[in-house]
Amino acid sequence: QKEVEQDPGPLSVPEGAIVSLNCTYSNSAFQYFMWYRQYSRKGPELLMYTYSSGNKEDGRFTAQVDKSSKYISLFIRDSQPSDSATYLCATGRPYGNNRLAFGKGNQVVVIP
Amino acid sequence: EAQVTQNPRYLITVTGKKLTVTCSQNMNHEYMSWYRQDPGLGLRQIYYSMNVEVTDKGDVPEGYKVSRKEKRNFPLILESPSPNQTSLYFCASTSGNEKLFFGSGTQLSVL
After folding, report:
1. Number of alpha carbons in the 13 Å side-chain half-sphere of residue B107
2. What's the CA angle centered on A60, arms A59 and A63, to 5 degrees?
3. Least CB-CB distance to B45: which of A32, A41, A99?
4. A92: left (phi over 0), alpha (psi -120 to 50) or beta
5. pLDDT tens, residue by residue, A81-105
6. A43: which chain B residues are within 8 Å (Cβ-Cβ)?
7. Residue A17: DSSP 8-state
8. DSSP label at A82?
9. pLDDT at residue number B68
10. pLDDT at A13 over 70
11. Which residues in chain A have Cβ-Cβ distances shorter than 8 Å to B32?
12. Which residue of B25, B34, B43, B97 is the best one to mutate when testing the A interface, meaning the one whose CB has the most A CBs within 10 A?
């Protein structure tokens, strides 16, 4: 079983729509949950980070973690064309032996 | 500006010809790592380094070498590249908090 499962299908939405992205993970010991955003021809950049179950908001972005079901979500409200990118979920610690496990990523296209 | 710099951005080579991809960070980070990104497989860690002269294998280390002689630099060495090492490579660093800084990537093609 993969450590992190993310259905890599592309997603096209009209500007202003809500984008909903999801991942599941297998290791209940994972404690750090992240979403990275990757623009075309660029490296991933950290978008959201959370340590616990529940919601974390940052502007139009909400990260949600449900440890009981091992489910990670990212919601983008009022989506903008500038949100068009690939979104990668990740869990674990980014350093040391407990390394980050990444999902395969979702390509999101926001259509003006 | 805080950044991780990789060179070159694009590289085309032939099987068996040794190459080095350089990585440098200006944030005084102790931890650095290399990833490869392949369609359908996502990001996979190749090697990581906790500090100078301390390196360890990641998930897919076969065919790669690294060295960490200075804190800021972490080159990736392919001594005998093969076509299955054609990929997009990223260097990353962190100070030990949760934010991993990535470079802009190196697209490698091995013919």
Report:
1. 5
2. 90
3. A99
4. left
5. 999 999 999 998 766 666 788 999 9
6. 4, 90, 92, 102-105
7. P
8. G
9. 97
10. yes
11. none
12. B43
The 10s digit of each residue's pLDDT in A62-84 is: 999 999 999 999 999 999 999 99
Instruction: Output phi, psi for B62, to 5 deg.
Output: -60, 130
A103·B42 Cβ contact <8 A: yes
Q: Which two tokens stand for residue B96?
A: 């030990």
The letter for the amino acid at A62 is T
Q: What is the pLDDT of residues A28-42, one digit of tens each?
A: 888 889 999 999 989
Interface check for B88 against chain A (CB to CB < 8 A): the answer is no
Tell me the chain B residues in contact with residue A8 when contact means C-beta distances shorter than 8 Å: 40, 42
Nearest Cα to Cα of residue A72 among A43, A97, A102? A102
Is 90 exceeded by the pLDDT of residue A56?
A: yes
| Angle at the Cα of B33 from the Cα atoms of A98 and B8, rounded to 5 degrees | 160
pLDDT at A1 over 70: no
Question: What is residue A31's predicted lDDT score, i.e. its pLDDT?
Answer: 82
Q: A95–B94: do the CB atoms touch at under 8 Å? A: yes
CB-CB neighbors (< 8 A) of B4 in chain A: 43
DSSP chain B: ---EEEE-SEEEE-TT--EEEEEEESS--SEEEEEEEETTTEEEEEEEEEETTEEEE-S--TT-EE--SSSSB--EEESS--GGG-EEEEEEEESSSSPPEE---EEEEE-
What pLDDT band is residue B82 in, cutting at 50, 70 and 90? very high
Q: What is the pLDDT of residue A96?
A: 65
